[in-house]
Amino acid sequence: MAAPVLSFRIDDDIVAQLDRLAAATDRDRLYHIKRALTRYLEAESWHVAAIAEGIEDADAGKLTDLEAVQAKWGSSVKDPTDRKGRK
């Protein structure tokens, strides 16, 4: 069975970067597109699954008290809204 064909438009600068990468690695565009898409889907799928697991835990009443979190981690963060000095 043949693989489905996808078609989409993409900015010229991304195509230029892709072409430079393809030339530098002696691979074609498709190789890098498939690799990038696979990595993206793995990361996003993990994220969605982690959120679903958290929702299930919350629905089951498996929650951590805010004071317990602050007691464990509060000393490592002075002010969570203060981004100065962070990278």
Q: How far is it from the N-terminal to the C-terminal residue, by CA?
A: 48 Å
Poorly predicted parts: none
How many H/I helical runs?
A: 3
Average pLDDT, rounded to a whole number, is 90
Coarse structural class: mainly alpha
Number of domains: 1
User: What's the shape?
Assistant: elongated
Considering DSSP H and I runs of 4 or more, what fraction of the residues is helical?
A: 55-70%
User: In what range is the share of β-strand residues?
Assistant: under 5%
The main sheet comes to: none
Please compute the radius of gyration using only Cα atoms.
22 Å
Number of strands: 0
Strand/helix succession:
HHH
Can you summarize this structure?
By secondary structure, the protein is mostly helical. The protein has helices at residues 12-25, 29-59, 66-73. It has three helices and no strands.
List keywords for this structure.
3 helices, 87 residues, mainly alpha
Provide structural commentary:
By secondary structure, the protein is mainly α. The chain has three helices and no strands. The chain has helices spanning 12-25, 29-59, 66-73. The mean pLDDT is 90.
